[in-house]
Structures are given as C-alpha cells and as structure tokens.
Write a structure and sequence with these properties.
about 55% helix, mainly alpha
Length: about 220
C-alpha cells in the first residue's frame, strides 16, 4: 500500500491520528505538524524518548526561531502570541485544503488592523482579502476578544503588535530554508504545545500560556 500523504513510499506505520497507514518518512517529518499525533502513539513516544541527532538539531533551530519571534515582547504580548499560536495549531479549516501561511498572514493582517482601529476609538471590522483568511480571522477574534476583557486600549495595542509580528513571519516564511507554503504553520506545530480544548475541539484560553517544547 502506498502512503496517502506522499503518494510515493510504502505505508508501513499505522497512524492513529489519520486512521490509516503512512510511510516512515511522513511519520517522522510531519509528526506534530501536519499530523496532530495523540499522546498514545507509540512512534511519538519512542521519538521523544530517543530522538535522533537530526531531530534534536531541528528542535533547537525551531526553538531559536520561535524565541526570535517573541524576542522583545512584554509578558502580555507573549501570552497573546502563545494563545494565538496555539489556536492556529489546533485550527481545522472548513475547506478541503490545509491551513497555509498565506491564510495566517491575511487573518493576522485583518485582525491587527481591526484592533489598531479600535485602540484609536473607532469600531470597524477590517476584512481579510481572501476567504480562507477571513474564516480564520472570524474564528480567532472571539478568543482574543474574550481574553482581553477589561484590558482596554492597552490590550488592543498589544494584540495588534503581536498580530503584525505573526503576519510578517507568515509572509516571509519561517522554517528550514524558509521553504514551503506551510513553513510557519508547521514550525508552530512543532514547537507549541497547545492547551486542551473542549470536547468539541474548539480552542479555549489555556489556564496558563502554552509552552514551547524544549528538547
């Protein structure tokens, strides 16, 4: 049987997240990124217990990149970043295609403009320029609004700063060689441990900021 993800190699590993067999290469490279592996997965547990040297180097590069993204954030901005990044990692597009960096950039740009306008005392919903970006923005905004209750214009400004940083990262690519339409999305999937959502799968504000997975 051929792996359904790459369509090239033989499928030799049973993937509990996808419900069908995949090849070892896709299992290793898409783990916790494109594939949302459950903690019960034996391959995931083995990889965490005995990561190869290449995986350790990748984790360190990912961590360095993620820390660069939040390099000058204050505490609240850091919390907003990890809350937003966790939501992006858990987000499931309604369309058939997976979430790509362009969608993230469009959603972040629209929401940043909305929060910037609101901080100046003007209520105006800035639309995203793509349908996929609009859907992501519509799903993310209630989470940010709820988490910022009582924060006033200071929270709105901080949120706009964070969203602009995410927009910039999504537009310029973040990842190995800055290659691929999902470079930032996959990077976040590798380094962010999202807070648990409700049973319906929707992301909720975690009790504490999501944490980076440190190798």
């Amino acid at each position: 049987m051929t792996c359904r993800l790459c369509g090239e190699r033989r499928a030799r590993r049973a993937c509990p997240a996808l419900g069908h067999d995949i090849c070892a290469v896709c299992c290793g490279t898409k783990r916790l990124g494109e594939i949302q592996c459950p903690t019960s997965c034996g391959y995931l547990a083995a990889a965490r217990e005995h990561p190869p040297a290449t995986a350790v180097r990748q984790q360190r590069r990912d961590l360095d990149t993620a820390m660069h993204l939040v390099r000058d954030f204050n505490q609240r901005q850091s919390q907003i970043f990890f809350l937003t990044a966790s939501f992006i990692v858990q987000y499931q597009p309604s369309a058939l295609h997976p979430l790509v960096d362009e969608d993230v950039a469009e959603a972040a740009a629209a929401l940043a403009a909305t929060f910037e306008t609101s901080a100046r005392g003007v209520i105006y919903e800035h639309p995203a320029t793509t349908a996929a970006g609009g859907r992501l923005a519509a799903a993310l905004k209630p989470l940010l609004t709820e988490s910022g209750q009582g924060g006033g214009t200071a929270f709105e400004r901080d949120t706009a700063v964070v969203l602009r940083r995410i927009e910039e990262a999504a537009r310029h690519g973040q990842g190995p060689g800055d290659a691929g339409p999902r470079a930032l999305v996959e990077l976040l999937g590798r380094v962010i441990r999202p807070g648990r959502g409700d049973e319906d799968g929707a992301a909720r504000p975690p009790a504490e900021p999501s944490r980076l997975i440190v190798p």
